[in-house]
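Researcher: For the record, we're logging two predictions in this thread. I'll number them. Prediction 1 follows.
Model: Prediction 1, sequence and structure:
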Amino acid sequence: MSAEIQPFRIAIPQDDLDDLRARLAATRWPRRLPGAEWSRGVPVAHLKALAEYWRDGYDWRAHEAELNAFPQFATVIDGEQVHFLHVRSPEPDALPLIMTHSWPNSIAEFTDVIGPLTDPRAHGGDPRRAFHVVAPSLPGFGFSPFPEPADDRPWSAARVAVAWAELMARLGYGRYGAHGNDAGALVSPQLALAAPEHVVGVHLTGGLGMPTGDPAELEGLDDGERAEVAFLAEMLNGAGGSGYAPYLARRPQTLSYGLLDSPVAQLAYLVERFTEFDGWPDDGGAPAEPIDRDRLLTNASLYWLTATAGSSSWTYYDGAAGMPVDQAAVPTGVSHGGSAVFRRLAERGNDIVHWADNTAGSHMIAMSDPGPLAADIAEFFGKLR
């Protein structure tokens, strides 16, 4: 494949689906550890029920067809295949928007926001705020697999941003917006830095103004604001959380063997990442189920069927994980930014023109709260048109 853009269609061989079901049926299940449920990780009974549904109830072909309803393409950029959705709006003045998905997620993250963004007229929205959506699979994720042997050059967020600028140029878009969540929130500001003459604005779900623990961040804040920042700094940088990030940043290859050999190991990993938003309940009770079960399993299936659970960990190993870089080259909008104190911190290095303190049921906001997210994206870019 050359620099040309080729049509792409998902077509998973039936043998791969049969193998997945056989592996799910042959799972070796661990004993339940003592202690409150969820306090030591995903409970055995919860995962068993989900795995049984994945094996006998979930219909991959239906969701494959749902994804194939979106126009898909592939091209080679910087030596890697880049797969992407390209859904044009029926509105003639729609703004091109490149949307970068999360980790550990995929282009399936945007299934429920593409319609409201590309055709707001059909979804009760303002047709003057329509978008042509381009949603690439990050390198090493899904249908953008790394070649074998892998290119040893790091895929930093900045390198991805340069690739995205090239992709938009190949599509003929000279003026466009950028949106991102999680890993996508790292790439999108880098895209503004790489192509400020083309990017009209960057919309993020969050990450700007987040404390690092530097005492200088507390300067000029009152006691209540200091306490708020200190609390979040401890949550982000202290002993909380499940501890996966340091391991991925150091030994992703070791973890990849289990994720690529056991679909249940892959599923458990995703369940924990998708439900861990406000932290595990202190009493060990189950966290809320913010994402539709089939949406979760579509994502798990994409990781399993493309064998990209290991290669997707470059976001940590290559230093691309963390918080978005500051940039004032183009305006920024944030949908889930937290209280005003975090906006004040973000404004030290960014041109913030839109800030909302929205909440969501999961860190995978496009999956748990697609309607409010699409509305916030439209509101932000409506200020820039």
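Researcher: Logged. Prediction 2.
Model: Prediction 2, sequence and structure:
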Amino acid sequence: MRTLLLIVIGLVVMALAMWLTKPVKRTTTAWLFTAVWLLATLWNLYTGMSHGYSLQEELPIQIGIFAIPVLGAWMLAWKSRGR
């Protein structure tokens, strides 16, 4: 459930950031979101490992938590390039 919650939070933050940004600046916003979301994902990885999970258990989950919102940000940035 925590994984789904983090993915939804990432998607909401990403959508809000993209919505508040002008289309010509969305590539920059995608870069900034990627960096911030990477830090959030690394913090979540650290939290999971501090609760006894191994890197092998946590890594696939963290990749999903990171990749889904970041791919969404880059798809929106790419889609707005034509405008």
